[in-house]
């Protein structure tokens, strides 16, 4: 397993019948960068910043996974 891989993947509903696996920092950053600009908020910004900080070694990958999970739970799942 590479250093940027999550310890366990997250599965995020991308559309009604499409679920995307997020298994690494690269997956999370791609998902966040593709998120519609008009739906971005402070939680999105914080998750993206945490992912970049993990890439740069300033934060652990687990922090980025947790930040992405928090974003996805609220923004994607609506809860």
Automatic annotation (TrEMBL):
<dbReference type="Pfam" id="PF06169">
    <property type="entry name" value="DUF982"/>
</dbReference>
<dbReference type="InterPro" id="IPR010385">
    <property type="entry name" value="DUF982"/>
</dbReference>
<protein>
    <submittedName>
        <fullName>DUF982 domain-containing protein</fullName>
    </submittedName>
</protein>
């Amino acid at each position: 397993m590479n250093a940027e891989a999550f310890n366990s993947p997250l599965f995020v509903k991308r559309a009604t019948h499409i679920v995307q696996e997020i298994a690494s920092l690269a997956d999370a950053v791609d998902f966040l960068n593709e998120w519609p600009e008009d739906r971005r908020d402070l939680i999105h910004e914080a998750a993206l910043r945490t992912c970049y900080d993990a890439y740069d070694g300033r934060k652990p990958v687990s922090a980025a996974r947790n930040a992405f999970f928090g974003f996805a739970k609220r923004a994607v799942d609506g809860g």
